[in-house]
Amino acid sequence: MKEVMVNSAAVHDVWLLGVAALLSLVCAVAAIAAVRRILILEDERRLVWLTVAGFLTGIGSWGAGFVATMGFNAGVTIAFDPFLVLSSFLVVVGMACAGWTVMAFLKHKLGSLVGGATVGAGAAAMIYFGLNAISAPVPVGWSEPVACLGMAAVVGVTMLSALLASRVTGAVGLALAASVLASVPLIAYFTLTQALEVSQVELMQVAKLETAPKLMGLTIALGILPIAGLGLSFALFDLHIGKRREAEGQRINALANSTFEGLVLVQDGRIVEVNERICEITGLEKEDLINMPLCKVGLDEASVAVLQGLECGDKSTCRLRSRSEQIITAQVSCRGIEFRNEDSLIIAFRDISSEERSRQRIMHMAHHDALTGLPNRLRFREALENELTMAWGNHTEVALMFFDLDRFKEVNDVHGHAAGDELLKTVAERMQDALPKGAIAARLSGDEFAVILPDCESRMAANAVAERVVASVGSPVTIGSVHLNVSASGGVTMFPLDGEDPDRLMNQADLALYKAKHLGRNCVCDFDPKMGRELQEKRMLESDLAMAIEDELLDLHFQPQSHLGTGEIRGFEALVRWEDEVRGFVSPAEFIQLAEESGQILKLGQWVLETACREAVYWPEGQRVAVNVSPAQFKQGNFILSVERALAKSGLEPHRLEIEITEGVVIDDEARALTLMRRLKELGVGLSMDDFGTGYASLNYLRAFPFDKIKIDRSFISGLQNEPEAQIIVASTIELAHQLGMGVVVEGIEDLDEMSALGDQPEVLIQGYLLSRPLTRGQLPEFLKNPPDLAARAADHLCEQLQQNWSGGAA
User: Fold this and answer.
1) Which residues on neighbouring strands pair with residue 557, listed in sequence order?
2) Is the pLDDT of residue 544 over 90?
3) Cα of 482 vs its chain's centroid, Å
4) Which secondary structure element, helix H or strand E, spans residue 174, and what is its range?
5) DSSP code, position 239
6) What is the pTM of this model?
7) DSSP for 289-310?
8) Are β-strands 686-692 and 709-712 bridged in parallel, bridged antiparallel, or unpaired?
9) Averaged pLDDT for residues 476-491
10) Quick one: what percent of the chain has pLDDT higher than 70?
């Protein structure tokens, strides 16, 4: 049999090939645009575009190939099996859908290659079905090597197109991928025509192609083009909408990532989306957080419970896991939203770790002693109340112990406050080492320590612990080059044997401590009910004081304040005195403290204020009266009214009244104290900070409160001439006050040497025994008439010193 392979260019219709190429290109562009939408989308629309992409790929390959075939003239009439033709269409569409699906779900290079190969396999199957669908009046066949080569070519081309579509972005990627994919039907056409073999055909001029197949090809092309155009339009439109959504999404993501809060989107208890801030807070990657149960973000059981119980509108605090193993404290807030048609929770985590650490540090500072790190008086009182409550419920005993260093003031006076501070720290460490587990130690003030011993077996056991503490503290201490012999005394009381009230127990422990000191120090004394007699005497003194205040049996003395430069008397400080008929002179330190403890200080303070104003009215113009105010007075709600009433009743001008305030007045409620002080300033009353230098926050108070004057405490002045460090402190304080526009009163000047140690400070006011002891009302006129001439006395004193030095030198 003679076989002629029909492959001459004369048998191809160029116009139909051009139509087929155009059709293939339009369908390829539309298909690749749809594929790229598939790669971007994550919702249900992806399934729609998978179908569209598969259909456009299949109809483009099949339709363009069929149109080109309609222009092929093999020299004989060719017919096609409708069933195989339809099957080829269905196969190429189905395989295209499958290939693009693989590519969509395997978003990496291998997925693109496998998906492209699957699409190419459909095109190869189309070639195979096409070759087998051909029939003619004469025997026909096809070359297997040529057919296999063409099938391999379309598989490679589709793999390349898929790779370009997924890896090359923008219009360039779309053009390259579509151009490569558009070549598939042309490769299929030429594979079919080159592989086809027709028998018994003479080599002669090929007859002109009939018009009917051309028309059919054009008809099919015109039918497919609108479909491809519509698909392309929808793809481009969706791409445009997608870009807008993507831009909006990027804008929203940028906003979400720029927040200070970590944001987590939760559905059904699992994290589905996060922003960058939560990754920064936890140190975890976004991939680690996605699909993680929300509760696993919590660090402990309490935090897990908080996260599991979150509902819309909730606000709470929890601790989060961190890759750095650092504890992250976060403030959590929650609200409900709808995301992808599902009810979801958007949870905001605000990192408050630094604020929490600051809060804990402030709380620690507020409840602990800054020097020793032990609980302070406030924290100790809270702990004592808690332990007594627990002991009451458990029917157990609690021992309360007070300890005090013996002669600690001498350490400060001889070796300085720095050595004293080091000693207190050493004592605190030794005390804790000597105490059993569960004991609570605290520093109440100065060198005074306290210990709570819960679940104490007996009084004997408590005394044994106290003695062990005293023995441990009593070992010699070396601080730098200084060797100190230290001893301590202790007092012990028991709950509920000696009492049930915390204040009473603390008072009893204090009484036992002072009993130990009276017994010779360096020992422990147990509370004895006989000590109650002292309490009884105290109560009697309290009763007599109340009567003395009520009957105005107290007296007011006035200690003068003199201008150091001119010697002029500028004013007086009002000092209350009590001469009892039975006890005689009662020390102000004793009855004023008692008045504060019993609450009588309010009435006493009001009497002092009104009496001082009434007396000062008769003094020479310009001389002021200074009145001390207790914390209790300052805290009362009508203090400003009391001052106004005292001024009104006496007729004293407000600028001649000066209120002296200690640190204890403002330390409890600074905001309220500042308000009251400003109101006093509005009245025209002067403000003076008393005992300056003895508190921890005096410098801060100078900045925060509107003081007119400060009074340097006599603890800095005593022996000033012998302490260069104290002279530096005093001089610096005076300079600081003058720089702040404040006056200075130096109290406690008792001799000329101390006054001379002040140096050249002409604007300072001095107060003390050197100038005068406190004067009674009757002594004031004579004193004002003949005030002491300190300048002359200082000159005489200087002459005496020079004479003594000269005599000593001559000798």
Assistant:
1) 575
2) no
3) 44
4) helix 170-195
5) H
6) 0.41
7) HTT-BGGGGBSSHHHHHHHHT-
8) parallel
9) 86
10) 83
